[in-house]
Specification:
Blueprint lengths: L12 H5 L4 H20 L15 E4 L2 E4 H4 E7 L2 E6 L5 H9 L8 E3 L2 E5 L5 H38 L5 H34 L3
Antiparallel strand pairs: 1-2, 3-4, 4-6, 5-6
Length: about 200
Amino acid sequence: RTEAPRVDDEPDDDASSAVVDVERLREDIDGAVSHLSAELSTLRGGRADPSMFDHVRVEAYGGSQPLSALAQATMKSAQTAVITVYDPTLAESVRAALAGSGLNLTPILEGHTLTVPVPKPSRETRDALTKVARKHGENAKQRLRRVRKDALDTLKAAKKKRAITEDELRALSADVDSAVEAGSKRTVELVFERSCNVDECD
């Protein structure tokens, strides 16, 4: 009599470990949060700070370079920034990048240093910027929800194929929820911080 092949109730360890790429999951979450941070940095409020220049890119050395790699930004006063360019030959390129950054800036170039007056926005502008910040935050949360759904769908498919057990499904799903929840919390904090910067709250 031919013996029927045995069905192993236990999942294969290698298959189980490859069900969800935890590193990729974290990268996706961090990517959503980083994208939000970059978007929020463009929203200038009542309090000017060096981070408002984080998104500015400069044409230099044959490509597009982040301003932070080419110069140091500091605040001389609440409404005046000073940009010190490391390579004096790039000072004009930095000036052009700041002028075209969409931040309504008129940088003044003196040698390899730029003085950047930062005009204070009106009440109407601050209200509009706060709404934009919240919208960016909601978009980031939507990205995180998609990351969560994709990960949970992968886990459920793995369970259906018997690659993982029911207990592992619950445990891994909880890990996914925890990671996404942490990312969501970071988005809330970023939006709150930028909204306060825009609206000059304490």
